[in-house]
Amino acid sequence: MFFGLILVFAAVSVWFATVEPDGALEEWVFRYGYIGFFGAAFLGGLNFAIPSFHLAFIVPFLNVGLEIWALVILGALGTTLADSVGYVLGHSGGAALGSLGRLRTWGEGAVAKYPRLAPVILFAWVSFVPMPNEIFIIPAGLIRYGLLKTFTVVFAGNIIFNLLALNFGNLFV
């Protein structure tokens, strides 16, 4: 199933890459530029079911000549900021939902048993898996995993993910 999801993501990415920026999309890209990409990354990062939709705008943004490194940083900042919402939900939701007590106990035990593995898994997921980061971010908030530790790893992973996605999109420019 995991590899199937990656294949679907790659196929959708290739399909989006063939979309020409015309009409309303072209006007939106010209009008909002970098701020628009940041906003799309933030809104896309708020999802809990599908990959970030800011990836659909990669080719149009690169076609108008925006700098790839600026888009990498803005995409990483936007998705990391959105991921913080998931962390807060997990952090505050743990107290509100007593049924999550068993998950919290298991998560805390796993992190205590393998303290160096947790950031590696989080980094690998955020960097290379085209699925929502909240799968790990919400539980990190739930077990009250360190905020700075979590978002240092998440931001670094988001930089790698956006760099890979933008370079893939750059093949179609």
Task: Describe the protein's topology.
Layout: H1 2-17, H2 23-45, H3 58-63, H4 68-96, H5 101-113, H6 117-128, H7 134-142, H8 147-170
Offer a few descriptive terms.
mainly alpha; 173 residues; 76% helix
Described by the principal axes of the CA atoms, the overall outline is elongated
Kindly give the count of domains. 1
The averaged pLDDT comes out at 77
What pattern of helices and strands is seen along the backbone? HHHHHHHH
Q: What characterizes the major β-sheet?
A: none
Task: Tell me the span between the first and last alpha carbons.
Answer: 31 Å
Poorly predicted ranges (pLDDT <50, ≥5 residues)?
none
Relative helix content: over 70%
Total helical segments: 8
How many individual β-strands?
A: 0
Give the percentage of residues in beta strands: under 5%
Radius of gyration: 17 Å
Counting helices, strands and paired strands, the structural category is: mainly alpha
